[in-house]
Design a protein that fits this description.
Layout lengths: L9 E3 L1 H6 L9 H16 L2 E5 L5 H15 L3 H4 L12 E3 L5 E2 L2 E2 L3 E6 L27 H26 L15 E10 L16 E4 L5 E6 L6 E4 L5 E3 L7 E5 L1 H6 L9 E3 L7 E11 L3 E2 L3 H6 L9 E2 H10 L5
Helix pairs in contact: 2-5, 3-5
Length: 329
């Protein structure tokens, strides 16, 4: 469980990115220090900023910029890629369609997932079968996003290797049958200034209600000049995740919590855009294999006194449950 942290730690993961495929990376004292920092951040906050990640800042900014261009389009244009069951729940959502714990969220979004081909996972994958709906306007949207997804996938694998070392396991502990073929999701989100002219009749000012993420690891690419993301500590205080230019906000999710038997825990967070400006955020979610059976790993059960504290889950079923319970048609 998150502690009484008052700020979110910043970690320069450059040494880990450099040595991520070295069979003994912690022989480098710089990597060993990163591993210690990751362990402390995951135990105490479940959230941390990462710098030294290797994704050029120009690309990070361009992703936000092209997302903003899409959200600036007339509603009719955006609805050309409207999300529906027929699209495998991929595409555009209008403001107030997404629901968190029974409350409508004040944001619009494009949802994208790793492609699921017909029959790929049998009945388990039917609901999510489909290809992503990318807008033709603005131009190059698809190419930029697919390149960005590839970069985030590689970065997440490197960070997760550092987390494996932080937990005392081998580098590839979370690969193979767990996440050797990781599923991923991307949510491209626009938060209107609900107290301003953009949303004068908003029923609340909650951009996204309090929740935990369901996967392994999340990378948040947020606007540099608006503080809206908030993280809850054990005392119930909401700690702002203020933007730090050049970084990603990274947090761990429910699947990592289950596998570590609660040694690491996913932390509750929410978004409230009280700024007079429209806010853009692109969240990348690194998940297990779609058909992975996620349960506490034996090494963590032993550390916890021999008892499984958490129930396991089949990732695909868990994902579908989350998707169907957050969308209203």
């Amino acid at each position: 469980m998150a502690t009484d942290f008052r700020s979110i730690p910043l970690i320069d993961i450059g040494p880990l990115v450099e040595k991520w495929d070295d069979p003994n990376p912690t022989q480098d004292q710089r990597v060993a220090q990163v591993v210690l920092q990751l362990d402390k951040a995951c135990r105490e906050a479940g959230f941390f900023y990462v710098t030294g990640h290797g994704i050029p800042d120009s690309i990070v900014k361009e992703i936000r910029s092209i997302s903003r261009q899409f959200f600036d389009l007339p509603c009719d244009e955006k609805l050309k890629i409207n999300l529906s069951p027929a699209t495998g729940y991929r595409g555009y959502q209008r403001v107030g369609v997404n629901v968190t714990k029974g409350v409508f969220d004040m944001h619009e979004a494009i949802d994208c997932y790793k492609e699921v081909k017909p029959g790929m996972y049998g009945g388990l994958g039917e609901v999510m079968e489909g290809c992503n709906q990318w807008p033709s306007d603005p131009p190059r949207f698809k190419d930029l996003m697919e390149d960005y997804v590839n970069r985030c996938t590689e970065l997440s694998r490197k960070i997760l290797r550092g987390i494996a070392l932080a937990l005392g396991g081998p580098l590839d502990m979370f690969e193979g049958n767990i996440a050797g073929d990781p599923f991923w999701a991307v949510r491209i989100i626009g938060y209107p200034a609900v107290n301003g002219k953009q949303m004068p009749d908003a029923i609340n000012d909650i951009g996204c209600g309090e929740h935990t993420d369901y996967g392994l690891l999340t990378l948040v690419n947020q606007d540099d000049d608006i503080t809206a993301l908030q993280v809850r500590n054990i005392d119930g205080e909401w700690i702002p995740a203020a933007p730090v230019p050049g970084t990603f906000v990274c947090n761990i999710g429910d699947m990592l919590k289950i596998m570590t038997n609660g040694i690491y825990e996913s932390t509750v967070h929410r978004v409230m855009n009280n700024s007079a400006k429209y806010r853009v955020c692109v969240a990348y979610f690194y998940e297990t294999n779609y058909d992975a059976v996620v349960e506490p790993l034996e090494m963590f059960v032993e550390r916890s006194g021999g008892a499984k504290k958490l129930d396991g889950a089949v990732y695909g079923k868990y994902l579908v449950s989350k998707v169907l319970n957050t969308i209203v048609f």
